[in-house]
Amino acid sequence: MKCPVCSIEESRVLESRDVEGASSIRRRRECLDCKHRYTTYERLEVPNLFVIKKNGERELFDKPKLSIGVYKAFEKRPVEAVRIEELIAEVERLARGLDQPELPTSKLGAIVMDELLKVDDVAYVRFASVYRSFASLSSFEKELTKIKKLHN
Prior knowledge:
By secondary structure, this protein is of the alpha+beta class. The protein is built from 5 helices and 6 strands, in the order E-E-E-E-E-H-H-E-H-H-H. A hairpin with a 5-residue loop joins strand 2 (24-31) and strand 3.
């Protein structure tokens, strides 16, 4: 790290502190040459994650788009926003944890549905009805039967 005053690369760390929920580190440094003190931040670089849509199109993983779908599934359900945000963060963590630069929407949808099922059956069915494009009442009933079996 170069000193902003004299451009010397030699410095010593005076203090380190986690910031932003431990996703960054703030460091107070002192230049060994001119003694100027300055602050630096270190952040974990997160690689891009691409989602492969059913039509073959690639797009960047879009957390706000995921959030909209998940929040719609939980609409008028007795689940706190904090819990929903945790679920969304867990879906992103699991998707990125696969260590694949590209992820089909089918896999991402399966991750979302697995997490929804752990929290709220109704939200799960709502999401599944859109995600799986239920075309008939029988396909909807099959999904409900599957949920009932899991709870017995």
